[in-house]
Amino acid sequence: MKKNMLPHLVFSSLYFVLALFTILMLLLSGFVEDFKQMFRLITQPYGVYFIIAIILLLAGILVSLFHFVRVYTSYISKVYSLCIASILLVFVTLLYYQFFIQERVYLDFFSLEDASKFTKEGIFDKQLLIMIADYLFYGLFVLIPCVVYFFNLHFDKSKIIGRIIELMQPNFNVIIGGIFGFSISPFFKNGIIGYIELIFLVLGLLVFIYIVVIRKNLLDSYEHFNLFLLLVVFVTMMITNHSFMDAQSYFEVRKAFYILVLVGWSSGWMMKLKPKTYE
């Protein structure tokens, strides 16, 4: 797999910082009594992960605008400018949703009424919109790419659709980031849905590891370390139990990784567009 090194290095660096921070918070809030409330605090409405998501969305908008102008003013096929415009619209829509549509509930730890909400049944039940976001993202950035790599599928580059699909194919780093994000979920507390999602996660992880084993020469040191962090967070989620958390708190973390993956994926294929990329 030919890598575009600048977005590859930037994505790996951002993933490293965010993954390490998340793992540390999960371990502290899961094992250290004095830090039981920490993870809830940083996933509160307009907390740390909200700020991270907003920064990444703004970065995605700026990068998309830059490449849209670059492609539109060059000899690159204008069909790619339509692809970039579509991604730009996604980033703008997500940013608008974050500020003006998404409903958030702020819980006060010092309020007995708010604290009692964490003991109610169904606190980990996902809203329909969250489920759609999780499954759509996992399908597009984990399952489908793993199938493509598993069967070593190729697309007809003589046609514009084939070239677009080949160009936009998520790389190994994107898949790793996607699995990492999906793994931040209370699998053992969400009933049958949680166990089904855990099966999907394990299958995706096993298939990806199998691909890595048979095509190990395609992974560099960054991807190997990113995979190591993925395995660490997977084990962490299996052995830790977090207090003062609900479905929305876990989704705030997943959402930050989803947006990071979306930005890394889109900037990666946009950087590959050169004047020779014509219809």
> What form results from the Cα inertia axes?
globular
Helix count? Answer: 11
Average pLDDT rating: 89
Total domains, how many? Answer: 1
Described by strand count, sense and barrel closure, the largest sheet is: none
The helix/strand order is: HHHHHHHHHHH
Distance between the termini: 23 Å
Rg on CA atoms, Å: 20 Å
Number of strands: 0
Low-confidence stretches: none
Task: Report the β-strand fraction as a percent range.
Answer: under 5%
Q: Work out the helicity level.
A: over 70%
Structural class: mainly alpha
Account of the 3D structure:
- The structure is a single chain.
- The protein has 279 residues and is mainly alpha-helical.
- It has one domain (5-24, 49-100, 132-271).
- 70% of the residues lie in helices and 0% in strands.
- It contains eleven helices and no strands.
- It has helices spanning 5-31, 38-42, 48-72, 79-101, 112-116, 128-150, 160-168, 172-182, 191-214, 221-239, 247-271.
- It is globular and about 65 Å long.
- The model has no long low-confidence stretch (mean pLDDT 89).
- The chain crosses the membrane at residues 9-28, 48-72, 79-99, 128-151, 172-188, 194-213, 225-244, 256-273.
- Keywords: Membrane, Transmembrane, Transmembrane helix.
